[in-house]
Write a structure and sequence with these properties.
This protein is of the alpha/beta class and 331 residues long. The chain has two domains: 199 residues, Spore Coat Polysaccharide Biosynthesis Protein SpsA, Chain A (Alpha-Beta Complex), CATH 3.90.550; 120 residues, no CATH class. The chain has twelve helices and ten strands. Strands 1, 2, 3, 4, 5, 6, 7, 8, 9 and 10 form a ten-stranded mixed beta sheet that branches.
Length: 331
């Protein structure tokens, strides 16, 4: 049996399409755990409606505690040998779990990953995979090189993978702090050539928001991963670990003034840590093989003062809002 965990929070326009794609899977032996994480719109009622139509669906209504807590509750309740995750504004192909389970059984893998369709408002972009198999260490190196995905939702996981691992609660970008640990503990990670998951890239999602929790969560997850892996991976991956922290620091400096003033003080410890790490591990103008935008962006975190934050924010605002307008007028 596969336990499919679906966290739900204020996704009324999308949740029907998501649940339809799960209950209509060609692989029928499913336990569908829907965690209504304190929704304030009609999402919870829609979930109850679906539970009344399909006995495989189990609904849990909780106070709002965040995505990690919802997934962890699902893991605590899951009875299946295998675990799948589907975010409630996404949807999956009808044969996704049949395809992934077949590959898992054939390759004796603990984890199987498929390709993804990234769904934008005006286009669809496919991110394909080749059919391969890796050890846990190999998979971590490929993860850092963006050849495997940090996402948990385009995968089928053996339940045992989560015997001692849970998602960090109260933090966004939780997968960066979790997936590499799951890979390291796995015997084999396999991939399939098929793209089976549709990831809807919508405005207003957690990953596209800029607030103090978002900025600090991005840094903390990447710093934890850096500390855990810096002495375990190859040279290319070590460079990537540093690159991600450079991205996190420059991202924070560029968006700090997008946050409420009262929230900025809450992440002062993280700001100090970013500043110290940047000065110790990253050249003033980045590394030669980095894109110009990253080399410019990482300059500012070398300085821990109001002026560096303000100049980084101004520069980012220009590139985000003004440059696109100029390009549109002259093209």
């Amino acid at each position: 049996m596969i336990s499919v965990i679906v966290p739900v929070y204020n996704v009324e326009p999308y949740v029907r399409k998501c649940l339809d794609s799960v209950i209509n899977q060609t692989y029928r032996d499913l336990e569908i755990l829907v965690i209504d994480d304190g929704s304030t719109d009609g999402s919870g009622k829609i979930c109850d409606e679906y539970a009344g139509k399909d006995e495989r669906i189990k609904i849990f209504h909780t106070e709002n505690r965040g995505l990690s807590a919802a997934r962890n509750l699902g893991l605590d309740e899951a009875q299946g040998e295998w675990i799948g995750f589907v975010d409630s504004d996404d949807w999956i192909e009808p044969d996704m779990y049949e395809v992934l389970l077949k590959r898992a059984e054939e390759s004796e893998a603990d984890v199987v990953e498929c390709g993804v369709y990234k769904e934008y408002s005006d286009r669809t972009v496919e991110r394909k995979r080749e059919e391969c198999q890796y050890s846990g260490t190999e998979a971590v190196n490929l993860l850092l090189q963006c050849k495997l995905s940090n996402a948990v939702w385009n995968k089928l996981w053996k339940n045992d993978c989560f015997s001692s691992i849970r998602f960090p609660e109260g933090r966004v970008f939780e997968e960066y702090a979790t997936t590499y640990r799951l890979f390291l503990d796995a015997n084999y990670i396999s991939t399939v050539a098929e793209s089976e998951y549709h990831y809807f890239k919508r405005k207003g999602s957690l990953s596209t928001s800029y607030n103090a929790d978002n900025l600090s969560g991005y840094w903390i997850s990447h710093k934890e991963r850096y500390d855990a892996l810096i002495n375990q991976v190859d040279e290319e991956s070590r460079d990537k670990l540093v690159w991600y922290l450079a991205l996190a620091a420059s991202r924070t400096w560029a968006h700090l003034y997008d946050c409420e003033k009262a929230d900025r003080a809450k992440i002062n410890d993280e700001l100090q840590e970013m500043n110290t790490f940047t000065k110790q591990h990253i050249p003033l103008f980045g590394k030669r093989d980095w894109k110009l935008s990253r080399r410019i962006g990482v300059f500012f975190p070398h300085f821990m003062n109001p002026g560096s934050f303000y100049l980084a924010w101004i520069g980012n605002t220009v590139f985000r809002k003004i440059i696109p307008v100029i390009r549109h007028r002259f093209t």
